[in-house]
């Protein structure tokens, strides 16, 4: 089986790091009711609280026209940060296991965050629009699509250690 590279996420200047009302706890249930693994840097549609829970929401795969107010980007802290940081290759090997309680940040206009290409569908380049599609990966397009919810645009491409990260400004 080939090695799968997982998405890498960095919260560059995100309001949720200082405003707790923009943080959401959730479990990703794919397109329905089965707990599903998901990478950091992917987006989800945040739904109702899960049965018997006071803080954990059900998260599912968004539609292209899902309201941005109902979306969150998965930003869960890696389980064993020390082990992850021992090698540059460990971040690309990390994914959130099925059934795990996840942390998500809601989008706020003006925020900037960075993701690796694995969180994006399309070939990212500076100036491209970033929008929602029927997937947890954000879609990169040259011109925004009228029927899709817009997240922002790529404002920078950065090399961090051995990773190429694309900085997205929420608009």
User: What is the terminal separation in angstroms?
Assistant: 39 Å
Number of helices: 1
Average pLDDT reading:
92
For the biggest sheet, the summary is:
7 strands, mixed
- Tell me roughly what share of residues is in helical segments: under 10%
Shape label: globular
Number of strands: 12
**Rg, alpha carbons:** 15 Å
Strand arrangement in the largest pleated sheet: 1-7-12-11-9-10-8
Low-pLDDT parts are none
Describe this structure in words.
The chain is mainly β and 171 residues long. It contains one helix and twelve strands. The chain has one helix at residues 81-85; strands at residues 9-13, 23-28, 43-49, 56-60, 71-74, 102-106, 112-116, 120-121, 129-131, 138-141, 150-160, 163-170. The protein has a seven-stranded mixed sheet with strand order 1-7-12-11-9-10-8, with no helix packed on it. The protein has a five-stranded mixed barrel with strand order 2-4-3-5-6. It is globular. The N and C termini lie far apart (39 Å). The model has no long low-confidence stretch (mean pLDDT 92).
